[in-house]
Every structure is written in structure tokens, then in C-alpha cells.
């Protein structure tokens, strides 16, 4: 069986790490017809937008995409392509597994948690406006529908993966209505999943606890902004953004992408770490129920990282992007 999958190379280091991921996946034996769809800053002059309709159409047709990082201007310019994809395709669940790999320099051992982030609303809904020339307002939207389904998703992923605990992260002590709604929905969903432990924690306390004892946590579920911040912070606990994959999942469409950004300062130098992009491909293969192939690639990545002989500069080595990818292939 051959799968038709949309491949979005992205900006900056995107084309390099995505080529590395594609090379590893193709070498694993799974048959994929890649449909390349360009998005980001490079297509604005031609299409007038960083997210042309044909990209959305390709993903809707193929139902699965592997995406590279896309640059988002800070404080000006076009709106985030990531947010646009998530909202237009209703990719409501952002899933970011965070775990330690032997050989990757970090301060912790035995970290293995999953951050499940609501992906479509909260402060990232993009509802904001100026108040004259003296202020700006952003409107945070939390709905019962979105809160129920992200909590249900978190418990389902915990049950499917044999995990024991779900922690809801919030700021309901201050935002009593919006975060209060999210927390109440999580509590009600937890009542339907008696086999999974449930607790909740205020987001600032959660930040401290993750830094102190990340091994104590299993599945964390939270609104949009908190998930973005805590997943980056958690990445730092296990060696950095270069080793953390991610997925954006809807009812029947999924887009897989590394947590890291486009890193334009090192683009084109063939030194970017493709681990997160490759592991995002592993998540994609699991989604396609190609579990054997996914495990084969994951094990090969783990072997290369543990040896530490052919790794990129962020992991203390001197290997180029494609050298790392080739070493993973050698260990398949």
C-alpha cells in the first residue's frame, strides 16, 4: 500500500530537515507518494499570502501532511501559517511528546511526558484590535465544546498508550470564567475515565514543578498559550527543540511538524538537527498505523543519539544534517 502525503518544506532550515526526514522515511520501506506544497514567506510574492489555497486543498485531499517550520514575523506582517492551518482544518489537538534520549546532553533522566494543547482558540484565536492609539486588546475565547474535546483527547491518548495520569493546567484562580470553564470541563471528562488518575495545577506552579521533577508527569492538557510555552520549556529539559516532535490532529486530518522554528540564522548551512523532523515522521507513521516501521525508525534514532559519534553541533557533535540522516538510515 502506498500513502499519498502532503509535504510542506517550509522556510529557513525547513527544506533541509524535511529532506532528511523524507530520506529516512523512504529508506524505511514504507511506500509514500509525496505531494510537495510550498507555504511560507517564499510564496508571498507569487500568491499574496503565505498559505495559498492549494496547500489547504492538498491536505484536505490527502488527509495527512508532514510540515517543516514556517517563519512568522514578530509584531507585524502576515499571520502565523501554523495558526491558519490549525483553524482552517480544525486541527484541535496539538500533541508534543517530550522524552529523554540516552546520549542527548540534558540534566534529567527518565522524562517521558506528553503535552496536549488545545489548538484552535484561547488567546491564539487572533481576535484583537486597537483602542485608538493608546491601547490594544486581545480577546481570549474558551468554549465548552473545545474544552470537552481536548480533555477527552488527552484521556484517550493516556488510555491508548497505557499512561496513568492526566494533569489539567490552567489559571482558573485568576481567570475564573474562561480558565474556570476549561477546568470544569476537564473535571467532568475525568469522571468518565476512572482508570486514569486526574489532577489539576495552576500554570505557574506547573512551570516550577516541571523544572524540579519532570519525571512525575505523564499527560498534561491545557489551553493554547500555556501549551505553547510549556512545551518549549519542557523541550529544554530533554536537550532542546531539536529533539521534540509534534502533531496537529483533527477528526480525520493530521499535520505533523517539529516543535522548533525556522532558524533562519543557520538556514542553508546543513548544520540543523533533523531529529525532531524525523521523529515527527515517526508520529505520522504511528497515526497511519505503521507501527513496525515507526518503531524501526525510532530505535535507529535512539541508537545514533546514544552513540553520540555522528550528531549535529547542538548535541555536541560536528555532523551535518544529511550525515545524521544517513547514520539513522545505516542503523535501520
What does this structure look like?
This protein is of the alpha/beta class and 332 residues long. It has 2 domains: 1-106 and 241-332, Isopropylmalate Dehydrogenase; 122-237, Response regulator (Rossmann fold). It has helices spanning 14-27, 44-47, 53-62, 81-88, 144-160, 178-190, 203-212, 224-237, 275-287, 291-307, 321-330, and strands spanning 2-8, 31-36, 64-67, 93-99, 112-118, 128-131, 135-138, 165-170, 197-202, 219-222, 247-249, 254-257. The strands form 2 sheets. The protein has a 10-stranded mixed β-sheet with strand order 2-1-3-12-11-4-5-10-8-9, sandwiched between helices. Strands 6-7 form a two-stranded antiparallel ribbon. α6 (178-190) links the parallel β8 and β9. α7 (203-212) runs parallel beside α8 and α10 crosses α11. The longest helix has 17 residues, at 144-160. It is globular and about 55 Å long. InterPro entries: IsoCit/isopropylmalate_DH_CS (IPR019818), Isocitrate_DH_NAD (IPR004434), IsoPropMal-DH-like_dom (IPR024084). It comes from Clostridium aestuarii. Belongs to the isocitrate and isopropylmalate dehydrogenases family.
What tags apply to this protein structure?
single chain; 332 residues; alpha/beta; Isopropylmalate Dehydrogenase; Rossmann fold; 2 domains; 10-stranded mixed beta sheet; two-stranded antiparallel ribbon; NAD; magnesium
Write the layout of secondary structure elements.
Blueprint: E1 2-8, H1 14-27, E2 31-36, H2 44-47, H3 53-62, E3 64-67, H4 81-88, E4 93-99, E5 112-118, E6 128-131, E7 135-138, H5 144-160, E8 165-170, H6 178-190, E9 197-202, H7 203-212, E10 219-222, H8 224-237, E11 247-249, E12 254-257, H9 275-287, H10 291-307, H11 321-330
Parallel strand pairs: 1-2, 1-3, 3-12, 5-10, 8-9, 8-10
Antiparallel strand pairs: 4-5, 4-11, 6-7, 11-12
Helix pairs in contact: 1-9, 1-11, 5-6, 7-8, 9-10, 10-11
Family: Belongs to the isocitrate and isopropylmalate dehydrogenases family.
Domain Isopropylmalate dehydrogenase-like: 4-328
GO molecular function: isocitrate dehydrogenase (NAD+) activity
